[in-house]
């Protein structure tokens, strides 16, 4: 019997597999497709995802090959959000196509010991008190396999979710977008451009290999598969010219159906990524939120599999990530409303919001932090207090994202997190309460005894001790 089976070898499943292997958990990945897709649904990595990569020491490979952009868009508004003031070492978005992301993450997962089987389609599952039984259609025919836990990372049409009986409530598509990866003989200047008018909206982004992505939305409901001539007509309607469009590599449509799993956990089955939440791809955040789901789930599964924590630790995954998914859908719907604001009244709304973003830096920073996922903080429920009870800790940092703090010995906090372990920071502060020390010991925490370096954020200057989770959130903290 397997310890954990991950269904789906997209970025979310591959990151989860890597996290489990870093924690010493054997993992099997089953992927329906026989080979990786050459097409990239997602193109952008946001600051928190780059921080996630940095916590495991693999960000350089992405940064060396990607293109950094100091801004992002909200609802295709002409006024861009400035990412440069964000409180992170990575105040930018990173252009890095999904196909390349999957290639890198699969290589790392395999190097860590994950087994990845392609052409193995999960067709159903049942579970009992001890394990989950999967039926699989493989290259050599059907077979069955059992695992202590199964993680469904198999996309919006998730077989795992349906077979586990998890509801997927939401709304059907009312708006339809288009996407084409094509060659342009007369591309717009710069790495990208966007425009929105009464006839629709179009965004053009330069891609590797001499391609450009043309993506957008026009009024009305389309019929049939997207053709090059149809894509050309959309672009001409909005931009007034076809940009010398030719030689399509990929043409696709997508809708704004928005749904979220009612539960991210059903017994021994858990969901992450698009299997847990689907939405219109506004802001390019879907892959990012999915990888962050996997980051939250990985250390929990590892702790339970190793017997270091009770199964109830897995309930915290839904408690923490379901609200993040709900916020993602809300933001996506709001941006969709802006993108499809084709009427004169809608255009006036877009102009007003763009003006406010330009004139009110705090608004721009707040929206940028939401897109970047730097504002995600978890409620401190169940954290042992100094008195030893299970009441929430009072320290304001509890549950917050931890920045890459400089350490006095020249390292940074994220370097301490490379092995995906809890970190107990002993900064010469108060004695660590027994419940916190016991939890740190049970979870195999590493201890850092020393001081923080210079230029730490104001809220960290008086911290004397803290327990940091492997996903880079504060479990417990106390001032000197």
Question: What's the quick description here?
Answer:
Helices cover about 30% and strands about 25% of the residues.
Q: Could you walk me through the main structural features you see in this protein, from its secondary elements to its overall organization?
A:
This protein has 480 residues and is an alpha+beta fold. Helix content is 30%, strand content 26%. The chain has twelve helices and 25 strands. The strands form six sheets. Strands 1, 2, 8, 9, 10, 11, 19 and 20 form an eight-stranded mixed sheet that branches. The chain has a five-stranded antiparallel sheet with strand order 14-15-16-13-17, covered by helices on one side. Helix 12 links the parallel strand 22 and strand 23. Helix 9 packs across helix 10. The N and C termini lie far apart (48 Å).
Helix-strand makeup class: alpha+beta
Estimate what percentage of residues fall within beta strands.
25-35%
Mean pLDDT across every amino acid position: 93
What does the largest sheet look like?
A: 8 strands, mixed
Distance between the termini: 48 Å
Low-confidence stretches: 382-393
* Record field, number of beta strands: 25
Q: List the total number of helices.
A: 12
Helix content: 25-40%
Structural shape: globular
Cα gyration radius (Å): 23 Å
């Amino acid at each position: 019997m397997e310890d954990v089976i991950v269904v789906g070898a997209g970025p979310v499943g591959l990151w989860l597999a890597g996290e489990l292997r870093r924690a010493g958990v054997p993992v099997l990945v089953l992927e329906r497709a026989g080979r990786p897709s050459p097409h990239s649904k997602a193109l952008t990595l946001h600051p928190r995802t780059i921080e996630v990569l940095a916590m495991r020491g693999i960000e350089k490979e992405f940064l060396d090959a990607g293109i950094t952009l100091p801004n992002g868009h909200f609802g295709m508004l002409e006024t861009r959000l400035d990412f440069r003031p964000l409180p992170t070492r990575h105040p930018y978005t990173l252009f890095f196509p999904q196909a390349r992301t999957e290639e890198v993450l699969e290589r790392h997962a395999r190097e860590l010991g994950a087994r990845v089987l392609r052409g193995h389609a999960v067709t159903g599952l049942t579970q009992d008190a001890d394990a989950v039984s999967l039926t699989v259609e493989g290259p050599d025919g059907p077979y069955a396999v059992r695992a202590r836990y199964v993680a469904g990372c198999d996309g919006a049409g998730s077989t795992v979710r349906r077979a586990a009986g998890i509801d997927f409530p939401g709304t059907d598509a009312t708006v339809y977008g288009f996407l084409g990866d094509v060659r342009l003989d007369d591309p717009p200047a710069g790495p990208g451009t966007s425009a929105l008018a009464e006839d629709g909206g179009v965004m053009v982004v330069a891609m590797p290999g001499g391609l450009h992505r043309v993506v957008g939305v026009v009024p009305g409901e389309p019929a049939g598969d997207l053709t090059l001539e149809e894509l050309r007509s959309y672009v001409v309607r909005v931009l007034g010219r076809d940009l010398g469009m030719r030689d399509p590599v990929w043409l696709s449509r997508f809708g704004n159906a928005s749904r979220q799993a009612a539960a991210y956990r059903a017994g021994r089955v858990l969901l992450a990524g698009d299997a847990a939440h689907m939405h219109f791809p506004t802001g390019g955040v879907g892959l990012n939120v999915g990888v962050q789901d996997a980051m939250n789930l990985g250390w929990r599964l590892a702790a339970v599999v190793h017997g270091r924590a009770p199964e109830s630790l897995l309930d915290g995954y839904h408690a923490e990530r379901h609200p993040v998914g709900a916020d993602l859908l809300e933001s996506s719907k709001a941006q969709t409303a802006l993108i499809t604001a084709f009427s004169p009244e809608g255009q006036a709304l877009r102009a007003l919001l763009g003006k406010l973003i330009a004139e009110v830096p705090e608004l721009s920073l707040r929206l940028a932090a939401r897109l970047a996922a730097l504002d995600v903080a978890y409620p401190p429920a169940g954290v042992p207090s100094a008195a030893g009870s299970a009441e929430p800790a009072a320290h304001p940092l509890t549950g917050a994202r931890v920045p890459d703090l400089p350490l006095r010995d020249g390292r940074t906090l994220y370097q301490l997190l490379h092995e995906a372990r809890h970190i107990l920071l002993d900064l010469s502060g108060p004695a660590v309460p027994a419940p916190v020390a016991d939890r740190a010991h049970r979870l195999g925490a590493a201890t850092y005894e020393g001081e923080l370096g210079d230029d730490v954020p104001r809220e960290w200057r008086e911290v004397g001790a803290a327990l940091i989770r492997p996903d880079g959130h504060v479990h417990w903290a106390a001032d000197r």
